Amino acid sequence: MMHFQSFSEFLAMGGYGFFVWLSFGATYTLLLALVVYSHFQQRQCLKQLADKLAREQRIKQYQESSS
Amino acid sequence: MVKLGVFIQRELRLLARQKADWLNPVLFFIIVLCLFPLGVGPEPNLLRLMAPGIVWIAALLSVLLAAERLFKDDYRNGVIEQLVAARQPLLSFVLAKLVTNWLSTGLPLVLLSPLVALLLNLETPAFVALLLTLLLGTPLLSLLSVLGAALTVSADKGGILLALLILPLYIPLLIFASAAMEAATMALPYHGQLAIMLAMLLFALALVPLAVLSALKLNVS
Amino acid sequence: MFKWLHPLAKPETVYHLCGRLYPWLMLLAVTLLLLGNIWGLAFTPPDYQQGDSYRIIHIHVPSAIMSMGTYSAMAIAAFIALVWQVKVAQWSVLAIAPIGAVYTAIALITGMAWGKPMWGTWWVWDARLTSELILLFLYLGVIALSGAFSDRQTGAKASSLLAVVGVINLPIIHFSVEWWNTLHQGASITKFAKPSIDPSMLWPLLISILAFKVLMLALLCLRLRTAILQHEQHRPWVKALAGAV
């Protein structure tokens, strides 16, 4: 059963709206930031590895063609 | 354990040559103590009230200051690497470091405590408590700072990192030492606090050298 | 048992296992979190004393519980890393520390937002709040130490050692803070009575706690994958993987 009568009442949280939404907002922001940052790190890491690999291969090719 | 004496002699000789290593933290301690009255005002009662906290925070910071350079030179010169590689008893090296670190940073604070009592208007019971807590507490400070220094030996940015690692571990000591002094100013018994400090000291004495050993080993491998 | 655990010490196996588990764990965590929080926010009656502000409990309590649970998980991983020299365990310490730090920060922020309407101030030097703050410092120490070395592997080992030292100290710190707290202030605030919680409020709370737990596992999977890649750069299987991207 839904406790609140209307959406505006839900937002007001019986006068404690600011505190409730502040904490939920902060929580979700922090969690989302952590998830996004972890994904970003993973992708960055793979990309760097691929770049490094390509560079190594280029150097190898260059050495082979010049010798 | 025969080596312990040799290592202590070596450390003391080094300290005698590099006086800044142990003089600077002591000077820092005195300067911090002088700054507090300038910051909060020279009211004697206020100072007496705040003295436990002031003294112990100053002591923590000055020991921290000394800790940073504890293993740095030996690491850079390759002494630690040689000791690990030669399978020398690293434990006596660590113990010698501990002893000399206390002698060079902890003991001066104990010896300076009469001056501190003068500066902060401490009465005799509080001064006795200060002396006792410093005697029991500074070895523990040395133990923890040696651990922090060993962990960060090969780190690129040691200084501020060391503070972040070690200061949270100092908190119990800070609490009990200042509580003992506070109890002394109110003429209450403070054996309990001293006993807990002694317990923490013995506990740390049993475990910290082992942690320091493995910290040094992982830093050179 | 050891035979069953043994493949888990092999980075490649762990990498692929985490990759397979991650989407499901994440999906489960998000579902549980939304379920628990929406239930708790909209479908439970308000507390008779605290009104609607008590709804913060649905994130405050899970994050506080899991901030400590994450520390013990990290300490167990660190212990395994130190005793058996399992590399995957060392990297888990690095992967898990930021999760714990974020949980601890959430517990602190929500605790403050709860304290303002209830106690009248954002911050009180309450024993639990103070311990939580010190816990955050311990996490930050582990994170800072892991990034301070030019050699990644040394950083991982040093962080493991620090985590173990921290977990030995944690009870001492907690006990002394509690003692200090009762010495310094009357029990007016700390004793704010914990009423036996109504089952209608308990269920969403339990779901939220489970959600934070699963989210920790999911993030651990994701972050451990990155840590494995970073430390195993020179292995053939990592090169094959990177070449395929």
Automatic annotation (TrEMBL), chain B:
GO BP annotations, alphabetical order: cytochrome c biosynthetic process; cytochrome complex assembly
The keyword Cell membrane appears for this protein: yes
InterPro entries, per the entry: Cyt_c_biogenesis_CcmB, Cyt_c_CcmB_bac
Membrane spanning residue stretches: 21-40, 46-67, 98-120, 126-153, 160-181, 193-216
GO-annotated molecular function: heme transmembrane transporter activity
Any one cellular-component term (Gene Ontology): plasma membrane
Location within or outside the cell: Cell inner membrane
UniProt xrefs under PANTHER family: CYTOCHROME C BIOGENESIS B-RELATED (PTHR30070:SF1), HEME EXPORTER PROTEIN B (PTHR30070)
Family in the record: Belongs to the CcmB/CycW/HelB family.
Name of the protein this chain belongs to: Heme exporter protein B
Organism of derivation: Rheinheimera nanhaiensis E407-8
UniProtKB/TrEMBL annotation, chain C:
Biological process according to GO: cytochrome complex assembly
Major localisation: membrane
Residue stretches making up the Cytochrome c assembly protein domain: 6-184
Recorded GO MF terms: heme binding; heme transmembrane transporter activity
Domain of life: Bacteria
InterPro entries, per the entry: Cyt_c_assembly (IPR002541), Cyt_c_biogenesis_CcmC (IPR003557), Cyt_c_biogenesis_CcsA/CcmC (IPR045062)
Function: Required for the export of heme to the periplasm for the biogenesis of c-type cytochromes.
Record protein name field: Heme exporter protein C
Protein species of origin: Rheinheimera nanhaiensis E407-8
